[in-house]
Design goal:
Keywords: DNA-binding, Transcription, Transcription regulation. By secondary structure, the protein is of the alpha+beta class. It has eleven helices and nine strands. The chain has a six-stranded mixed sheet with strand order 1-2-8-3-6-9. Strands 5-4-7 form a three-stranded antiparallel sheet, with no helix packed on it.
Length: about 280
């Protein structure tokens, strides 16, 4: 992990999972931003116009913006004193942050990435930023887990803005997009027992090939990748329980045995079950 306080691009450097800093953005106006998997920007001084996915937002002090690596984003007409806090997160850490967050939040952020400051927002964000900076400065045994929890708290706080946001009631969502978000919801419900794309395609009454086209378009990933990612998060969650045996985890997640579970986990993470448990303990 690294902290940067100079003019910076919004893409992580080297092998960092997380990077934060304060300053102006390096990219010139009207130039597409090169983004990390997840980017959070909070305006500190000045103002700027951002174009995100063909919509324009006027950012001023304490406003904030949530971007993804596939966002089509650029800065326009920034003031000379524009500066922002930036938080850059890679795919692995973002997946751990997303675990357990409400699905409605992701749907909301996909269409509403920009938040205008109000008194409650300003108070919360200032406290949150102070605590995050303090956590980043410390050398802690569980620093990554604490930072994951810190970002989960932020997004859970944002989730109250999604209250009553029902995809079925939004006429501007296409059937294809609605199916894609329904698939995401089904993964959360069934991934402990089902890892087969055909199972989910059947529930959605579409073919696996069609489902693959949808997820690549809207999530930039194959259906199997999304399923496996959630299964890995389930395994990590259970590995946090020291008294739970590998065979118990395998049985709970419908693996034939602990050996197959271990091979599956190592294939997707590059580390064995025992080594991972030692690392987190």
């Amino acid at each position: 992990m690294d902290k940067t306080e100079t003019k910076s691009t919004l893409r992580l450097t080297s092998d960092n999972e997380f990077q934060m800093g304060v300053g102006p953005l390096a990219e010139a106006d009207n130039q597409l931003l090169s983004l990390s998997y997840l980017v959070l920007l909070i305006c500190q001084t000045g103002s700027a116009e951002f174009d995100v996915n063909f919509r324009r937002y006027q950012m001023q002090k304490d406003d904030f913006l949530v971007l993804y690596d596939d966002s089509i984003a650029m800065v326009r007409n920034r003031s000379a004193n524009f500066s922002c806090s930036y938080y850059l997160i890679d795919r692995s850490m973002a997946a751990d942050i997303a675990y357990g967050l409400p699905n409605e939040l992701f749907l909301f952020l996909s269409r509403h990435p920009f938040f205008t400051a109000d008194s409650n927002t300003i108070s919360f964000l200032r406290l949150w930023e102070q605590m995050t900076a303090r956590l980043q400065e410390q050398v802690l045994q569980y620093q990554r887990t604490i930072l994951v929890n810190q970002f989960q708290n932020l997004f859970l706080w944002l989730s109250h803005k999604t209250a009553g946001f029902d995809i079925a009631e939004k006429n501007d969502y296409s059937r294809q997009e609605a199916l894609c978000w329904k698939f995401w919801e089904l993964i959360f419900l069934h991934c402990r027992q089902q890892r087969d794309v055909a199972f989910y395609a059947g529930l959605l009454n579409v073919t696996p090939y069609y489902l693959s086209q949808l997820t690549r378009r809207f999530f930039n990933d194959a259906p199997k990748t999304l399923i496996d990612r959630q299964v890995i998060l389930e395994i990590k969650k259970q590995l946090l329980q020291p008294k739970r045996s590998m065979q118990q985890i395998a049985d709970d997640l419908q693996f034939t045995d602990a050996s197959y579970l271990s091979k599956y986990f190592k294939r997707h993470t590059g580390i064995g079950l025992t080594d991972y448990r030692k690392m987190i303990s």
